[in-house]
Amino acid sequence: MAGVIDERLPAGDGGHGLTVHAHGRPPPTEKAAFLAGAQTEIIEIGVALRSLTSLFVSRPERDFADPVRRLLSRGVRITYLVADPESALTI
Fold it and tell me: Residue 44: which of 22, 66, 65, 63 has the closest Cα?
């Protein structure tokens, strides 16, 4: 997993770097606002990503699906990584 993230870090000082939100699960509107600031790529990491998928099916489209569509239309790449909960990387 570290290799996937390292590959996407900008080389040198020309990029904005990597912004990490690793403090639990933010409310859907806060998450959408955080994601809206993405310039090139979003990497979402989880062990099941069930709560992520529920944002697409249980919330009004304007709350989450529409902001994600706008990101994709701007060319932002979205990568979802599902980690093995038994892996040493997740412990």
Answer: 22
Residue 52 · residue 16 · CB < 8 Å: no
**Are residues 11 and 50 in contact, defined by beta-carbon separation less than 8 angstroms?**
no
Reported pTM: 0.66
CA quadruple 46, 67, 78, 7: dihedral sign: negative
Q: Is residue 41 within 8 Å of 4, Cβ to Cβ? A: no
Q: What is the mean pLDDT of residues 76-82?
A: 88
Count of other CB atoms within 10 angstroms of residue 51? 12
Whole-number CA gyration radius for the chain: 14
